[in-house]
Fold:
Amino acid sequence: DVVMTQSPLSLPVTLGQPASISCRSTQGLVHSDGNTYLSWFQQKPGQSPRRLIYKISNRDSGVPDRFSGSGSGTDFTLKITRVEAEDVGVYYCMQSTHIPPTFGPGTTVDV
Amino acid sequence: EVQLVESGGGLVQPGGSLRVSCAAFGFSFRRSWMDWVRQVPGKGLVWVSRIDDDGTRKFYADSVKGRFTISRDNAKDTLYLQMNSLRAEDTAVYYCTRDYSGHFGNWGQGTLVTVSS
Structure:
């Protein structure tokens, strides 16, 4: 199985300041169809996960443009340009190029 | 509006069975691949199973293969997960998810399954 790692696992942030989470995979994530199925999810306390980014850098509908994804190969990054109070929660990267899909351990973002 | 509504969770004894359901609203269910993902409270996300749009292709995590069965009824816009030979380590919140623009685009609110004597 592809193992996803994230760093840091805990990210204290200051409101209005940028934040960045790194995600690495143990295998390349380019699918035979040419897409790279690397997604980012946000889970706020007491809520279901919500997808923010799909295929490395595509924002889902309704996701603020302060969130952006980048990367290639085995290294990926989620960036928040200016953290807001509502961004507190756990962030997961996930690969679904290979079966089984696998999630990173999660990064807790807290003020 | 896309909605996924899980139901059927509850308390079951080790070795027992349970079927959880996911009712889909607001999109073409019959054209969507679907997944189940579980989460032990306070822990991370783990993929469980996937089914294609017409129910012919099914995929399972090794930890549930041979015990869980994913299925769907496209006439009822409903996804199912039949869980047999349940173990304590199957205790988790089970989420139904819809694949679009890649995978896991929409999530339900989850249903809690507790395996305990």
Observations:
- Chain A touches chain B at residues 35, 37, 39, 41, 48-51, 54-55, 58, 60, 92, 94, 96, 99-106 (CB under 8 Å).
